[in-house]
Design a protein that fits this description.
Strand content: under 5%
Radius of gyration: 20 Å
Shape: globular
Helix content: 55-70%
CATH architecture: Orthogonal Bundle
Order of helices and strands: HEEHHHHHH
Strand order of the largest sheet: 1-2
Number of strands: 2
Low-confidence stretches: none
CATH topology: Arp2/3 complex 21 kDa subunit ARPC3
Mean pLDDT: 87
C-alpha cells in the first residue's frame, strides 16, 4: 500500500478536515475570549468627562499581539457590535445611540489598533518571534491608532452633536494627552503579558518560532 492508495487519501483528508475544524473552533474561542475581556476592562473605570479611564486598552493590545491582525480586529469588532445591540458593555452603557457618545471613536480605534498591532507583530514574527522591545513597539502602534480615531471623533461630537465649542487643542488634551501616562503604563504591561504568554506557548510546543499569530 503506497501513498496513492485511496484509503490513505481518504483518511488524510478526514484528518485534515478535523484539524481545520479544530483551528476554526480555536480561533472563534480566542476571539470571543478577548471580546469578553474587553467587556471586563470597560467595567473597571474612573468616570471622568468626557472620556473615562478604563482598562479596556490593556486587553485590546494583547488581542492584536497574540491573535494577529484580523482575529484581533474581529475580537474588538465583536465587542463593539455587542454593545451597539444594546448590551451595556461600554464604559457608559450600550445601544445604537452610543455612536453619539464622545468616547465612541475610541471603540472604533480599538478595532483599528488591534489590527495594526497584530499586523506589525505578524511582520516581525516572520523573522523569529520578537522580544519584548518589538512587542512594546507594536503596543505603541495600538495606542496611536486609538488616539488617531478617537481624538478627531471626540472633537466632532463635542462641537457638532453636543454643541460645545471645543478647539482641536482642547480635544487633544481631554481625549489624548491626559491619558498618555496611563496608556503608556498599560502598553508596557500588555507587552509584557503578550511576551510571557508567547514564551509559554513556545515552551508547550503550541507555537513555533517564526510562526505568525
Amino acid at each position: 500500500m503506497d501513498d496513492t492508495t485511496p484509503g490513505l487519501d481518504w483518511r488524510r483528508g478526514r484528518l485534515g478536515t478535523r484539524r481545520q475544524g479544530l483551528a476554526i473552533a480555536h480561533g472563534m474561542t480566542t476571539v470571543a475570549l478577548f471580546a469578553s475581556l474587553t467587556c471586563v476592562g470597560a467595567s473597571i473605570r474612573v468616570p471622568i468627562s468626557p472620556v473615562p479611564f478604563t482598562l479596556q486598552g490593556f486587553f485590546v493590545t494583547p488581542s492584536g499581539l497574540l491573535l494577529g491582525s484580523w482575529r484581533g480586529a474581529l475580537s474588538q469588532a465583536l465587542y463593539v457590535l455587542v454593545g451597539l445591540l444594546g448590551v451595556p458593555v461600554f464604559a457608559a452603557g450600550g445601544g445604537i445611540g452610543y455612536v453619539a457618545h464622545p468616547s465612541f471613536g475610541y471603540l472604533l480605534g480599538y478595532v483599528a489598533g488591534a489590527s495594526w498591532g497584530g499586523l506589525i507583530t505578524e511582520r516581525i514574527s516572520a523573522r523569529g518571534w520578537p522580544a519584548l522591545a518589538p512587542l512594546f513597539g507594536a503596543s505603541l502602534a495600538v495606542m496611536v491608532s486609538c488616539y488617531a480615531v478617537g481624538g478627531p471623533y471626540l472633537y466632532l461630537v463635542l462641537n457638532h452633536v453636543f454643541g460645545i465649542p471645543t478647539s482641536v487643542g482642547a480635544a487633544f488634551k481631554a481625549g489624548c494627552l491626559v491619558f498618555l501616562p496611563w496608556d503608556l503604563a498599560k502598553a508596557c504591561a500588555a507587552s509584557w503579558v503578550a511576551w510571557q504568554v508567547t514564551i509559554r506557548l513556545l515552551a508547550l510546543g503550541m507555537r513555533t518560532r517564526g510562526e505568525r499569530p
